[in-house]
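ingest -> validate -> predict -> emit
validate: passed (alphabet ok, no gaps, 389 aa)
predict: started
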Amino acid sequence: MSTPPMEHVWHAPTEVEQRLYDARMRGDWAAYFDVLAGTYLYHALPRDVADAGKSEHAPYWSPVTGTWCFAYFTQGVLPVPQPDPVFRCVTFERVVEEWGNDSRWLAVNPGTPCEAYFPATPQTLHLWRQHAQRISSSQAGALRTLRVGGPLQGPVARGLACGAQLAVFRGDLWNELAHHGRGFVRMRHMVAESWGIENVEDWKRIQEAMLGGRCVSRVWEFVLSVRQAMAREYGGTVDPAHWRETAAHVMRRNAEPGTVPDAGINGVQQLIGRITRYEARFRADGILAEGRQVRSVLAWDYGRAVNMARWGVAARFCEVAEAERAVVRAGEVSQVTYRSWEDFGAGYALGRCLHFDEEEFGIWYTEMVDIHRILTTDPESPWLTVPWR
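emit:
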């Protein structure tokens, strides 16, 4: 292995690069490999190659080794996404598999203070395989911050913080606008499979629908708006029985002449029961304070809108500037509806649970509890560092 002269001071963009730098400075290569095994790595490839479904590397000439190398980068040192080249995201184990068939050196974060270079020898490959088998590359469920180059205060940071629950779930850097996600090809596949997004027009349509609160169920928002109106009129906590009666009255009053919306009323009354039971669990598990209720589930749309903006950058459906405008809008509309990060977080959690959990209180629910705890207790959490207003 080969390293350039050591630098004295460096402000690493994320914890991953800091740990690589510290290990390199100590000459602790076992720790260096452990860090690589615990994160995703990226390599550049031409856009036409990616579009053709191939994964060959863009060549990298290293002045350090004087050879052509396979160059891999950690997320914090990736460049701003451009139309070409794009980046492929792989695990450390995958790197070992692909590298084992080639004699070129491997470069990690070349051109940065945490760079290192490794020859393709059997001994090196064996050592790397041991680390790859022992440590998972998944970072899901972790709060990760772009400490250098990412907004930490102001309207953009506030908007990005509205997407923090989903970012923590995925293990993404919560404040990264120049987003690569899991690489160009996988991000294109993800938005196509999950949202039917195949082109720029599709992405803009979904993005606008989320920012307008039009993807979340209108029935969910209707029943919560009825309770909010009752709370404003009568004050205090709204009794569920009175809530059911009022919702039924509003539905009958708004029904088309000659129609009897009994089936819809029954569904709404069952939904009110689901919501009250989720709220009871939210209070028990710390998502809601005692006596508090969820005011809206629009946060389920707004939080996803923030991430959809970032995914648009990763999939090359928009540029960073357009994503930033969408993120700021998400923060603004969230402030209109909610009063605090906890208020927003409970709305997002309820929307997600109503969408996925089906009152099983399974993994979809427990993930929300864990993420809420992280965002309300971790010192680096934007919910603690970025003011709501």
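The chain has 17 helices and six strands.
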